[in-house]
Design brief:
Radius of gyration: 22 Å
Number of domains: 2
Shape: elongated
Largest sheet: 4 strands, antiparallel
């Protein structure tokens, strides 16, 4: 029993990190640039099908039920230029290393070479399955709950209420599993945010990264704390050096929706050299991430600015 639990947790550790790093791609221009939602949405629909007993981890049929589940969730999260195309992630999820889509041909089951058609649904000729340790993991109800919650936290936190109301499964991991889940999420979020900013503080530009073993002086800081938002999307994070992370957490410094830094009136530049340096940051622009799709969300920046000490 202990060995089985240990296997599930080890597999879950790797799976959660993979879920945070799905090859989703980005689309759009300007303020409308965003991640494509299709792969995580398909996984949510597949996990629900497993909960309902309509599929097994090694045999997920391409079906009208799966298409409908995808479409229902797509309506909650879609952006203006997104198309409801579940057939695309059904095929392309294989590039993430744990999903195998197949088509039945004369010689048996062969790798799917093109997106399935709607006409293929419920014919039994197209199916997919989880591979490797994901197969056992997807068969564990508690792990599926954790996986679903991780997908929503990473990609769809702003739509959590709608997605939960549409049918969240009951149950959760035991306490030791929750601790491990939090640890993995924190590490995965950190990796995403620091990668987006190339390990550079978006306030002062500090970048020190020593490889093998890696040492960096920059943190991944949630704009709205995870405990309050349950939001691990990179747009809810910025890369900050220890000094400016500390100042933001103590509400002496805040990034605003104007994409500039704001400093609390409590900071007195004549009192110390450190406060003088912090004071000079007031009005300076945030250093942006390399990919604009991961620029801080305006609502998260507004949340921080509203809590700046002495701003009123």
């Amino acid at each position: 029993m202990v060995a089985a639990v240990s296997f599930v947790m080890s597999a879950l550790t790797r799976a959660l990190d993979s879920l945070y790093r799905l090859k989703v791609g980005v689309t759009g221009v300007g303020a409308g640039r965003h991640e494509r939602p299709h792969k995580p949405l398909l996984l949510l629909a597949v996990l629900e099908g497993l909960d309902a007993g309509e599929a097994t981890p090694d045999r997920v049929p391409w079906s009208r039920a799966l298409i409908a589940r995808f479409g229902r969730r797509f309506g909650f999260v879609r952006a203006a230029d997104d198309d409801c195309t579940p057939q695309l992630p059904f095929l392309h999820l294989r590039s993430d290393g744990f999903w195998e889509p197949l088509r039945e041909e004369a010689g048996g089951w062969r790798p799917l070479s093109a997106p399935p058609l709607v006409a293929d649904a419920d014919t039994g000729v197209v199916r997919a399955g989880f591979t490797g340790e994901w197969r056992a993991l997807a068969g564990d109800a508690g792990a599926r709950v954790a996986m679903r919650d991780a997908i929503i936290a990473r990609y769809f936190a702003r739509h959590r209420a709608a997605l939960d109301a549409d049918g969240a499964p009951a149950g959760r991991l035991a306490e030791p599993g929750e601790d491990e889940e939090r640890r993995v999420r924190a590490a995965s979020f950190r990796g995403l945010v620091l990668g987006n900013y190339d390990h550079q503080c978006c306030a002062c530009g500090l970048r020190i990264r020593i490889p093998d073993p890696e040492v960096t002086f920059v943190d991944a800081a949630h704009l709205i704390p995870f405990a309050e938002s349950r939001d691990d999307h990179p747009r809810n994070g910025v890369a900050l050096c220890k000094h400016h992370h500390w100042a933001m957490d103590r509400q002496l410094l805040a990034p605003g929706p104007d994409s500039r830094w704001h400093v609390s009136r409590r900071v007195e530049p004549r009192r110390s050299r450190g406060e003088e340096e912090l004071f000079r940051l007031d009005g300076q622009p945030l250093i942006p991430p390399e990919e604009s799709a991961y620029a801080p969300a305006p609502e998260a920046l507004r949340w921080r600015l509203e809590r700046l000490v002495g701003s009123g």
